[in-house]
């Protein structure tokens, strides 16, 4: 799935969660980052470091996602939503993942299940920069080769992102700036524990958290 598709579905999910009763404020910027964190980790490893066969590696496993969720909750209980955002990435990518990868190491601990291969098989002595270039090309080819079903799924996420931006009037410079600053509301911010702290201009424009 395209990165924007991931961001769209996850931001939409976080927005729905706020409307359905999640009381703690949500930083939608962080939510968007967590939506693509598995790709940031695994594609960076694939491009630059590991002798790997694809951009789906350790961060595309349930084990990694559960550990991440546990760490986030240990840091601060209300951070669970960011762990779930990263886990949602795995769900959205599920079509392109094998069961052996998603549930690694439960169905076999072989590192090949999570795309980590023998260096001789993958690189065959290929120079580093040439390998990075080849892999970048392979990643972009994946997008162009994606079927109609995958593209429609991506489109759904992008539409969700547009609805989010439109409904919250992020096309207005002041609201967009406010959103970029605190990740929550163009016109309000909340202190610890969800206490609303009004700011100038609050009367005219409800914040993201109010919509
Ligand atoms: Zn992914």
User: How are strands sequenced across the largest beta sheet?
Assistant: 1-2
What class would the helix/strand composition place it in? Answer: mainly alpha
The small-molecule ligands in this entry are: zinc ion
Amount of beta strand = under 5%
What is the arithmetic mean of pLDDT?
A: 82
Main sheet makeup: 2 strands, antiparallel
Low-confidence stretches: 186-208
- Amount of helix: 55-70%
The H/E string reads HHHHHHHHHEE
Q: If helices are DSSP runs of H or I spanning 4 or more residues, what is the number of helices?
A: 9
Distance between the termini: 28 Å
Number of domains: 1
Tell how many strands the DSSP assignment holds: 2
Overall morphology: globular
Query: What's the alpha carbon Rg, rounded to whole Å?
Result: 20 Å
Report on this structure.
The chain is mainly α and 211 residues long. The protein has one domain (3-167). The protein is built from 9 helices and 2 strands. The protein has helices at 3-19, 28-49, 62-75, 80-93, 99-102, 119-122, 128-144, 148-167, 173-182; strands at 188-190, 196-198. Strands 1-2 form a two-stranded antiparallel sheet. Strand 1 and strand 2 form a beta hairpin. It is globular and about 55 Å long. Mean pLDDT is 82; it is low at 186-208. It binds zinc ion (ZN). The site of zinc ion has 5 residues, from helix 2 and helix 4.
Topology:
Blueprint: H1 3-19, H2 28-49, H3 62-75, H4 80-93, H5 99-102, H6 119-122, H7 128-144, H8 148-167, H9 173-182, E1 188-190, E2 196-198
Antiparallel strand pairs: 1-2
Helix pairs in contact: 1-2, 1-4, 1-8, 2-4, 3-4
Zinc ion is lined by residues 38-39, 60, 89, 93.
């Amino acid at each position: 799935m395209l990165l924007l598709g991931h961001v769209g579905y996850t931001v939409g999910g976080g927005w729905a969660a706020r409307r359905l009763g999640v009381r703690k404020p949500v930083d939608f910027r962080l939510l968007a980052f967590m939506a693509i964190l598995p790709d940031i980790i695994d594609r960076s490893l694939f491009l630059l470091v590991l002798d790997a066969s694809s951009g789906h590696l350790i961060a595309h496993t349930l084990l990694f996602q559960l550990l991440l969720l546990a760490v986030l909750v240990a840091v601060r209980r209300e951070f669970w939503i960011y762990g779930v955002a990263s886990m949602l990435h795995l769900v959205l990518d599920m079509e392109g993942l094998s069961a052996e990868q998603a549930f690694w190491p439960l169905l076999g601990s072989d590192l090949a299940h999570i795309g980590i291969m023998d260096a001789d098989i993958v690189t065959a002595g290929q120079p580093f920069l040439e390998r990075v270039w080849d892999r970048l090309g392979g990643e972009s080819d994946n997008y162009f080769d994606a079927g109609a079903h995958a593209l429609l799924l991506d489109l759904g996420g992008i539409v969700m992102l547009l609805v989010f931006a439109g409904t919250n009037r992020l096309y207005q410079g002041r609201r967009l700036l406010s959103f970029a600053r605190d990740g929550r509301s163009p016109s309000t911010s909340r202190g610890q524990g969800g206490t609303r702290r009004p700011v100038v201009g609050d009367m005219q424009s409800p914040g993201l958290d109010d919509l």
